[in-house]
Every structure is written in C-alpha cells, then in structure tokens.
Amino acid sequence: MTSGAPAPASVPAGVDPYLPDRAPSGLDVDRYDLELDYRVTTNRLDGVARVHARAAADTDRVSLDLVGLRVSRVLVDGKRPGRYAQRQGRLDITLARPVRAGERLTVEVHYAGAPGPRRGPWGEVGWEELTDGVLVAGQPDGAPSWFPCDDRPGAKAAFHLVLTCEAGYEVVTNGVLVSARPRASRVRWEFDQPEPTAPYLATVQIGRYERTPLVAATGGTVPQDVVAPPRLRAAWAHDLARQPQMMTLFVDRFGPYPFPRYDVVVTDDPLEIPLEAHGLSVFGANHVDGRRGSERLVAHELAHQWFGNSLTAATWQDIWLHEGFACYAEWLWEEEAGGRTADAQARAVRTRLRGLPQDLVIGDPGRDAMFDDRLYKRGALTVHALRLEVGDDAFFDLLRAWTARHRHGSVSTGAFARCVADVTGLSPEPLLDAWVDSAPLPDLPARRR
Ligand SMILES: [Zn+2]
Q: One MF term in GO for this entry (predicted)?
C-alpha cells in the first residue's frame, strides 16, 4: 500500500504532484461566488469571483489559477492588496498585511476576456465554444479557463453562480436553479450549490436546448431532467429511458444518491467522450443514436456522482478510485439489464488486458497515463477481485459504507484500504498491493462460496 506516499520532495505542500508547475494557493477555499456576464455571440466573458477562504498557513501572499483571462482589479476583504501580478496561468497576490493560518479572507477578482480551452498535457480542456453555445469540460485542469480557483481535486468548495447571457438559450450549471430572470434581451440565471465540489467538476453548459423531465421530483425519487436540442428528442428518449432504473440499481448497491438532482445535457455538437460534472453529465449528439449504443456510458457517468464527485480523490494519483468504480458500475448495469454477468465481463476484460503491456501501476499511473483505458479496466477488475475475495454481501456493504463515510469528501487508496478492513475484516494489503501498486496483472481470486 503506497497510497498516501509522500509527494516528491520537489513538490511543495498544497500542490498536486501531477500538476507540479502550480504554486500552492495558500488558501483553503470554502466557497466560490461567481458573477458572470457572457455574450454567446462574441464569446466575451466579464466576471467577478469572490473566493471565500481561510489562510492555509501564516502568509503574506496567496495565489489562484487563472488562464487566458485578464484581471483588472483585485480586492482582499474589500481593500486593495499590496500588489498582484498574472504570470504562467496564475494570479499571485501580495497581501497588504500578513494573515495567520486559519484566518478568514475573501479575495475578489474582476476579470474579462474571450475564454477558451487550456492547452496542456491532456489536450484542450476547459471552456469551449460550441457551434451555438458553450461547453465546459474541466477535467483535469480546465477550471482556471473560466474562473480563478485553487484547481486541485482535493480543494473542494461550495459554489454560488450567477450567469447572464442572451435570451433564447438554456443555461445549465451545478447545483439547483434559484431563478431565471429576463432582463431586456438577456436572462440572469442564478444557481446555488452548497455541497463541496472540486473545481474541475464545476461547469457551464449553454445551448438552444429544451429541458424535459425524465423523472419528476415526487415520492423520494431523484429528479432527473434531460436538456437537449429538440431535434434529438426521439433519440435521447429511447437511449436514456433506462437511466431511472440505473439510478434505482445504483442507490441500492452504492447507497443514497449524493446530490439533490441529476441532469443530463446532450449537446447539438458531437463530443469525443461524455463527461461528468457535479450533479450532471454531458453527452454529445453522437452519444444518442436512438439504439442505446452508448448506454454503458450513461451508467458510467451516473456512477461518477458517487465515485469522483461525492468521493473525490485528494490527488490525481488516485484516479482509479473514480474510473475503476465507474467502469465497474457499467458491468453491474449490463448484468441488471439482462446481459453478461459482471463476473463474465471481468474475465473477458482480464483476458484482453493480459495481451496488453503490463507497465501501468494504477495507484500511481503518472500524469500521462491517468486516462489510459487500461487504468479504467484494471480499476474495475480490482473492485471485482475484492468482491470475489469478500463475497457479495460484504462487498455491497463495503460500497455503501465507503460512500457514506466519505460523502462529499476527499479520498485516497489508503482511506479505501482502511474502510475495507473495517467493514469486511479482510486485510486488503496483499490484494491492493498486487492490483493497485504493482504492474503485472494478477489472477482473479477464486470465487467465495
Ligand atoms: Zn469516467
């Protein structure tokens, strides 16, 4: 078990080892208040971000990630700071007076520009113009393309977001819609999201969409809307028809759904891959073909609400705790829907992985292999190996205990090992050493009777 291994000496505290070029923010952010004025036609963003935080240590400087947008004004607790400067994707602020660790401060940033995706090791990530609208895909480092933040998965915070744009568009973001008020030819949308979330899971979706309830808010069910262009109505109506059954299955297996609602946005443009955000998922027009051709991805993205969004890896190194579980949820759904059993799928995937290079350690895949498909599949195999080892009853008790214990929190492989030991009585180290912290592909354990 090497999770929780200390970061290399060259990476300072407060920096994710997979994002080593960042500076520590010096802040523990607990809420972002974002007030955005956006023009879809010209891609012009004017924003005011109020970052409510505590000082992480005694310090006289703090720093936020912000890429491609120009800052015009900074206030700290309503007053001008010593000075500020933008460089290399960061906003560095020298405080007018030093603060003590734990002291509260509000950093207010006025900024503007033409937002666009951030280019880096993972391609183009972040704010993106669609043919007629906007998509934000923040994973893993795109959040600073539209607001100043501490862009680490472990730096979770609540959000309050106001966005004003032209009328005629549907705006979707995280949390619950408070109001949508027309003002002349524009509409002011206000959303509130009290649960803490990682900045990469914050999103804005704008398009010429219609919003349709898939499951209304009645009888203790999780309300689910679909937000999509009218032309795709028949296709999504078929392809997403079984999502409510998936929700029922996952609530039973994983424990209560962690957020007040779950929405699906389907963009008018095709997308390479769907993506999860806090309380919603985004699919491309190509993912609704009217034949449920992407149904496994519908299950995958829904499962991320538990694994990734409610329980978020403290650092990117532990991304298998997101992708392995979401991939396993695909197998659970296929079995529930009358397809192959999870066990049969696991054995087929293991056979396939055996033919691929075994040079990936999923407990520390390295920055460039974070999204390697082998990590997803081997992560799911790890989950299945545990299930075989402890038996079905203890396994599903474990999943429910895991999501309850760390609900809305930050997690690590070490925390998972402790939960396994507490709930099942198994000493998980040999299994996790072999599956998570070593490269060669182990055999699946014999099935427990
Ligand atoms: Zn995923």
A: zinc ion binding
> Can you tell me whether residue 90 is helix, strand or coil?
strand
pLDDT cut 90: percent of the chain above it: 91
Q: Enumerate the H helices of 33-116 as residue ranges.
A: none
Distance 327 CA to ligand 1 centre (A): 7
CA of 371 to the centre of ligand 1 (A): 9
pTM value > 0.70: yes
Q: Which amino acid is at 171?
A: V
* More confidently predicted of 92 and 82: 92
| Residue 302 CA to ligand 1 centre (angstroms) | 9
Q: What is the pLDDT of residues 203-212, one digit of tens each?
A: 999 999 999 9
Instruction: Could you list the beta-strand ranges (E) of 100-148.
Output: 104-113, 118-120, 123-130, 133-137
Bridge partners for 94 per DSSP: 61, 83
What topology does CATH give the domain 313-435? Neutral Protease; domain 2 (1.10.390)
CA 146–ligand 1 middle distance (angstroms):
22
Is 2.60.40.1730 the CATH number for 27-204? yes
Per the listing, tokens 């946005």 go with: 265
CB 281 within 8 A of CB 301: yes
CA 304 to centroid of ligand 1, rounded, Å: 7
Return the CATH number of 210-305, one of 3.40.50.300, 2.60.40.10, 3.30.70.890, 3.30.2010.30. Answer: 3.30.2010.30
